[in-house]
Design a protein that fits this description.
Blueprint lengths: L7 E7 L3 H12 L5 E4 L15 E2 L7 H21 L10 E5 L2 H16 L5 E3 L1 H7 L10 E5 L3 E2 L2 H14 L3 E3 L4 E7 L2 E7 L4 E9 L5 H7 L7 E10 L11 E4 L4 E6 L2 E6 L25 H14 L8 E11 L6 E4 L6 E5 L5 H18 L21 H16 L20 H6 L2 E6 L2 E7 L19 H13 L1 E5 L4 E6 L3 H8 L11 E7 L5 E11 L2 E6 L4 H10 L8 E4 L4 E7 L3 H8 L14 E6 L2 E6 L8 E7 L3 H11 L5 E3 L2 H10 L35 H9 L5 E8 L11 E4 L2 E12 L4 E9 L6 H6 L2 E5 L2 E8 L14
Parallel strand pairs: 1-2, 1-11, 2-8, 4-13, 11-18, 21-31
Antiparallel strand pairs: 3-7, 4-6, 5-6, 9-10, 10-11, 12-15, 12-16, 13-14, 14-15, 17-18, 19-20, 21-27, 22-25, 22-26, 23-24, 24-25, 27-30, 28-29, 29-30, 32-35, 32-37, 33-34, 33-36, 34-35, 36-37
Helix pairs in contact: 1-5, 1-8, 2-5, 2-8, 11-16
Protein name: FAD-dependent oxidoreductase
Family: Belongs to the GcvT family.
Organism: Ruegeria aquimaris
Length: about 800
């Protein structure tokens, strides 16, 4: 007899698959007993039931990915002992193969990082690889990478075990209960209404509805860009002698994984050119369902997959399965509080990794809900990173086919998505393209990555982990910034006008630095949470007594806007306007930047009249613009905030006037190399919500004595009171000019592993690759230790001597940018 629905609950979770049951389980582990899970059909009936159940690490390139993965593997291996319900977990091992030099180099780069974070990936020889997977043709394999502790589990059993554990903790689970509406009052989620008309009032609503989440969220105005796609696996008839303990094999060259399945072999495809499924809406009645296979489309991919295990052709096909899985535009999940509604959280868009990452994601979300702050870096998964562009039907239709292959294929550090492009383009796009720009993509913005001598040469001849064809052109841009002048289109930077009676109070409450400054001052500041962890790093410019300009990177757009809007008090008057589309930001930097601007402006640009970190309205040709004397590259320069109506004319004027000063267009690769020579930090890349400004070397932006304090002030005061930190962000320069750095390379001090780099680039002025990263020691990490220590960086298994510094190695006294 079904239990009646409660009329009220502390937390209601929509969806009874892996993510919903994991979230409920982890909430009860935190002591939250009043949890209700509502499943529209039966537990696991959406996509969980047909998952392959792989508990394998893949190539993980962030600390949080490793933490989420290892938590799930460890939990599934011991959950049966707690609940009495088996999970089917077996540590049969996991084997990845490299069949070309680029893949081998990538895996050698990643393996040390993964070992640091508890994943025992180690390289093995081709012979050892063949012994572990004797059914395969591995004659082209250069090396294997093996994790003996990884394996597989039964997705249905895992979910039922989690459900049992959640019930043991007090949670109630109701099947055959479809949620049709999230109840909203004054912008706050207050409960749900079911298809039968029943309502449950709740303090918190959590959407874990898998591929149905987008359409459910849309009814409440919530933006959840994810799209279901066809996902295939083939199961052969029984193969004589096939071991039940055959390791899971992943082969990026065939876009296939292979594992034993009831005596036969499963070939699972993550093929390029996948097919989106039901672009308009997922049928509400779809349960335990399959999709009719498209043999014509997947046939060539299966043929290639069989090429790795040709002996499997000698047995029949037991089943070609096609079922839906949901994918997000950037292949990272959608997790966290939604910006559109208070008291509403989400965890969906697992990109076919719902079993693998379900436990870790459920744990993260449970802590986020209960404690108000996530326990791990969430910058890459935070649901507020997307705009509504990415949820449109056309975007999902065009991006969808690329996603599966992108998950399993070979990866390169600078490779962008190729589909659903040109969503956000600066008005200067055509000018930049004609100037030889090669465009990459970030958060749907088209960004000039580097410039070729001619438009015809603006292509990547071959992606590589080593120097690519554009490397020398980028070096010329870098040298121009240090010797002459560069122009950078930075229109992708997010810009907000914050004005009104209480604008200063709001921004000062959010900011570690003091925002209540004289008119025309630019303030570089950090925003932190109650624990002192970064929420943003940005500039705030005071344009009037009650009007401010907030500028932050494109990767922080949604998060910054959400944080400002959420912190406006009920009795405060603040108007926040996203002015990004109306402003074209043109940056002019370099020793000759002043000479160039003086040629086109009547304004006094001298140090005395226009000091560093100030803003003024100036004329450029016919046009009046806001100029900010600030830099992210460590050189004299200005950000020109030009109304987009006039941007092309201003660009043409500057490029013509700049010819005599050696002006060059410069792209994102040069921005990265310049700023890393200066050791400038960048939220979401170098620092995240688990880091704090004190240890990150940004203590100078923290005003602990600021009248009225700020959010996180007490936490930062406690950190500072502990004295010299044991963990500090340092800048590193490789002493050899040949190796390249990208991030995740391990740091060694006196032979001991002490951290890893967050990011790297080539420092053309310093003469070698540079990077920044946190190093942690048992004792306080003093300046003397940094200066005298024997530092090394691991690059693909080879330790390279490095120099470390607390201060920027380039222009540490900031003479150039203040010149």
């Amino acid at each position: 007899m079904p239990q009646p629905l409660p009329s009220q609950a502390q937390i209601v979770i929509i969806g009874g698959g892996s993510i919903g049951c994991n979230t409920a389980y982890h909430l009860t582990k935190l002591g939250v007993r009043d949890v209700v899970v509502l499943e529209r059909d039966q537990l696991t009936s959406g996509t969980t039931w047909h998952a392959a159940g792989l508990i394998v690490a893949g190539l993980l390139k962030s600390e949080v990915e490793c933490e989420i993965y290892t938590h799930g593997r460890d939990l599934y291996s011991r959950l049966e002992a707690e609940t009495g319900v088996p999970t089917g977990f077996r540590d049969v091992g996991y084997l990845q193969i490299a069949s070309n030099e680029e893949r081998l180099h990538e895996m050698r780069r990643v393996a040390p990082f993964m070992r640091r974070h508890g994943i025992n990936m180690h390289e093995i020889s081709p012979r050892e690889t063949a012994e572990l997977f004797p059914i395969g043709d591995l004659s082209d394999v250069l090396a294997g990478f093996y994790i003996p502790e990884d394996g597989r589990a039964n997705p249905v059993d895992v979910t039922m075990s989690l459900a049992k554990g959640a019930r043991m903790g007090g949670a109630r689970i109701h099947e055959h209960t479809t949620v049709v509406e999230i109840l909203v009052e004054h912008g706050v989620a207050v409960g749900v209404r079911t298809a039968t008309g029943e309502t449950i009032r709740a303090e918190t609503v959590v959407i874990c509805g898998g591929m149905w989440s987008r359409q459910l969220g849309a009814r409440a105005g919530i933006n959840l860009p994810l799209q279901a796609a066809e996902h295939y696996y083939l199961i052969t008839e029984k193969i004589e002698g096939l071991s039940r303990d055959l390791p899971v094999l992943e082969d990026p060259s065939t876009y296939t994984y292979y594992r034993e399945e009831v005596g036969g072999l499963m070939l699972g495809l993550f093929e390029p050119g996948a097919a989106p499924w039901n672009l308009d809406a997922i049928p509400e009645t779809f349960a335990f369902g399959e999709i009719e296979p498209d043999w014509d489309r997947v046939g060539p991919h299966l043929e290639k997959a069989y090429g790795r295990v040709p002996s499997a052709l000698n047995v029949g096909v037991r089943k070609l399965f096609c079922g839906p899985e949901s994918f997000t535009p950037d292949l990272a999940p959608l997790v966290g509080p939604v910006p559109e509604l208070r008291n509403c959280f989400v965890a969906c868009g697992m990109n076919s990794l719902g079993i693998l990452n379900g436990a870790g994601t459920g744990k993260v979300l449970a802590h986020w809900i209960v404690e108000g702050v996530p326990p791990v870096d969430v910058t890459a998964m935070n649901v507020n990173r997307f705009t509504r562009n990415e949820a449109t039907r056309a975007f999902r239709r065009d991006r969808g086919p690329e996603l599966l292959g992108k998950m399993f294929g070979q990866h390169f550090h600078n490779e962008s998505f190729k589909t659903a492009r040109n969503v956000k383009r600066s008005v200067l796009y055509d000018r930049l393209k004609a100037a030889g720009a090669f465009f990459s993509e970030s958060h749907s913005w088209e960004l000039p990555d580097w410039f070729a001598p001619t438009p015809e040469q603006a292509r990547i001849e071959r992606y590589s982990w080593f120097r690519q064809n554009w490397f020398d052109w980028h070096a010329e841009e870098h040298r121009a910034a240090r010797e002459d002048a560069i122009l950078m289109d930075m229109s992708s930077m997010s810009k907000f006008s914050v004005e009104g009676r209480d604008a200063c109070a709001l921004l000062n409450r959010l900011s570690c630095n003091d925002i209540d400054v004289e008119l025309g001052r630019i303030v570089y500041t950090a925003w932190v949470n109650e624990r002192g962890g970064f929420e943003a790093d940005l500039t705030v410019t005071r344009l009037a007594a009650d009007r401010f300009l907030v500028v932050v990177g494109e990767n922080s757009h949604g998060h910054t806007e959400m944080r400002m809007r959420r912190d406006v008090g009920a009795d405060e008057y603040v108007v926040i306007t996203d002015i990004t589309p109306s402003i074209t930001q043109i940056n002019i930097h370099g020793p000759k930047a002043r000479l160039l601007l003086q040629k086109v402006s009547s304004a006094d640009l001298s140090n005395e009249a226009f000091p560093f970190m100030t803003a003024q309205e100036i004329d450029v040709g016919y046009f009046n613009i806001i100029a900010l004397r600030v830099t992210f590259v460590g050189e004299l320069g200005w950000e020109l905030h030009v109304p987009s109506l006039h941007a092309v004319q201003v660009y043409d004027l500057l490029t013509e006037a700049g010819k005599e000063f050696g002006l060059r267009n410069a792209g994102m690769q040069t921005l990265s190399s310049l700023r890393l020579e200066k050791a400038y930090r960048d939220f979401g890349i170098d620092v995240d919500n688990t880091d704090n400004p004190i240890e990150a070397g940004l203590g100078f932006v923290v005003r602990l004595d600021k009248p009225g304090g700020f959010i996180g002030r007490d936490a930062l005061a406690a950190i500072k009171a502990r004295g010299i930190p044991k963990s500090r962000m340092l800048q590193f320069l490789l002493q050899s000019p040949e190796p390249l750095l990208y991030g995740n390379e391990l740091i060694y001090l006196n032979g001991q592993e002490v951290g890893y780099l967050q990011v790297g680039a080539y420092g053309h002025t310093l003469g070698g690759a540079v990077g920044i990263g946190f190093a942690g020691t048992e004792a306080p990490l003093t300046a003397e230790i940094v200066e005298t220590g024997d530092w090394e960086i691991d690059v693909a298994g080879e330790r390279i001597k490095a120099t470390a510094s607390l201060r920027p190695m380039f222009d540490p006294d900031m003479k150039r940018l203040k010149s």
